[in-house]
Amino acid sequence: MQIIVNAGNGSGGFFTWDVLDKLGADTFGSLHLNPDGMFPNHIPNPEEKIAMSLTRAAVLENKADLGIVFDTDVDRSGVVDSEGNPINGDRLIALMSAIVLMEHPGTTVVTDARTSMALTKFITNRGGQHCLYRVGYRNVIDKGINLNKDGIETHLMMETSGHGALKENHFLDDGAYMVVKIITEMVRMKLEGSEGGIHSLIKDLEEPLESAELRMVILSEPRYAKAKAFEVIEAFKTYIEQGYLPGWELDACGDCWVSDGCLVDTSDDPAAIDAYMYRAKVSEEENGEYGWVHLRQSIHNPNIAINLQSTIPGGCQYMAKVLRDRFLLPSGMDKILYINEIDKYARNGNLSTDA
Ligand SMILES: O=P(O)(O)OC[C@H]1O[C@H](O)[C@H](O)[C@@H](O)[C@@H]1O
Predict the structure, then answer these.
(1) pLDDT score at 96
(2) In what order do the strands lie in the sheet with 248-250?
(3) pLDDT attached to residue 186
(4) Domain Alpha-D-phosphohexomutase alpha/beta/alpha spans what residues (predicted)?
(5) Which of 144, 177, 220, 175 is nearest to 45 (CA)?
(6) Rounded to whole angstroms, how far apart are CA atoms 266 and 258?
């Protein structure tokens, strides 16, 4: 089997000489294996377009069976299949879910809540449960650990960023282990005489038509930013609960009773957490449920991240408009937030031009 590793000049080169080569794989054509903190080729990140497209090119040129993209410290990964299909983000979660659900039917899969509605469908169609949780790989993994403690069998925890952990691997945040699972499945499929590559495992995963991420900087001294962001997120929840945004409803993820910090935190006294968030599912008469809006505190910076996803054209722009006109402006939140990105997106449907 020929496997291309793109370590992006991070620390992932070992996966070729210490793992794949020793197991007899052909790693010819691998890219950027030597560590170089200046990252002269591209940022080592499986979410990066350049990292994925260079790996894709190397896979196709070498007619390799698989391409692997690691981040700097190998706790995140993405892959490219033999046909050059990039598998990262939701697709990687779907692929790992398909593998883990074959081994553990009915298991719960924890992800951050920026995943697509189609991913939830993909997991539940295979008999799994999808637990949507807070952004931050530590949050996602800890949620899985707690679910297991509470008797809910949870074997996979993954973030859209490519971070991921498995129960069988002691809940370690480990991009290399994910890839090992994928390679093992590829070998199993090959031995079974299966024609389709690993992509065939996720061929029924639908792609969201539109998705966007926007940021609103919090206008305050950094030390008060956390409290202000909390205020905004809670006001967002209240506005939805009180029906000020027609067709918007707080999203929930099933009947699990461990709801502390979840999409809908039913606890009267929510635990102090590092990244408050809510996701609203959005419907309209003509199209039914067509998208969602996810509002959360950034983990690193004094801002609020808004993620939007839609299955109909123009849906994200419309949701941004509603968010601005029915929540941010009437609630006065525009006084504590810099809303220029959302305003621009609401007017243009993108951020690249000024109206
Ligand atoms: O809050 P942000 O700035 O968007 O960052 C969000 C990201 O934060 C960290 O890097 C975590 O490791 C990731 O798990 C998370 O996705």
Answers:
(1) 98
(2) 248-250, 277-284, 288-297, 303-310, 210-218, 337-338
(3) 96
(4) 2-84, 88-189
(5) 175
(6) 9
- Which sequence spans correspond to the domains of the chain? 3-86, 88-207, 210-348
**Residues 283, 284, 289, 293, CA torsion sign:** negative
Q: b vs e for 60-86, b when ≥16 Cβ sit within 10 Å of the residue's Cβ?
A: eebebbbbbbbbbebbbbbbbbbebbb
Closest C-alpha residue for ligand 1 atom 9: 136
Q: How far apart are CA 242 and CA 270, in angstroms?
A: 20
Residue 355 has what pLDDT?
47
Verify whether ligand 1 is closer than 6 Å to residue 136 (CB atom): yes
Determine whether the shortest distance from the Cβ of 159 to ligand 1 is under 6 A. yes
Q: 263: which 2 tokens?
A: 């999409």
Can you tell me which atom of ligand 1 is nearest the CA of 301?
A: 3
Residue with tokens 């950027």: 32
pTM for the predicted model, two decimal places: 0.92
Domain 3-86: CATH architecture, name and number where available: 3-Layer(aba) Sandwich (3.40)
Q: Which of 133, 137, 295, 301 to mutate to test the pocket of ligand 1 (most atoms within 8 A of CB)?
A: 137
* CB neighbour class for 101 (10 Å; exposed up to 12, middle 13-18, buried from 19): buried
Supply angle C-alpha 300, 97, 114, rounded to 5: 30
Q: Which residues 6+ apart lie within 8 Å of 280 measured at CB?
A: 236, 240, 245, 248, 249, 250, 251, 292, 293, 294
Which residue, judged by its Cα, is nearest atom 16 of ligand 1? 136
Ranges of residues in the chain whose predicted pLDDT is under 70 = 253-275, 353-355
- Rounded (10°) angle between helices 89-103 and 175-191: 60
CATH classification of 210-348, choosing from 3.50.50.60, 3.30.310.50, 3.40.50.2300, 3.30.70.270? 3.30.310.50
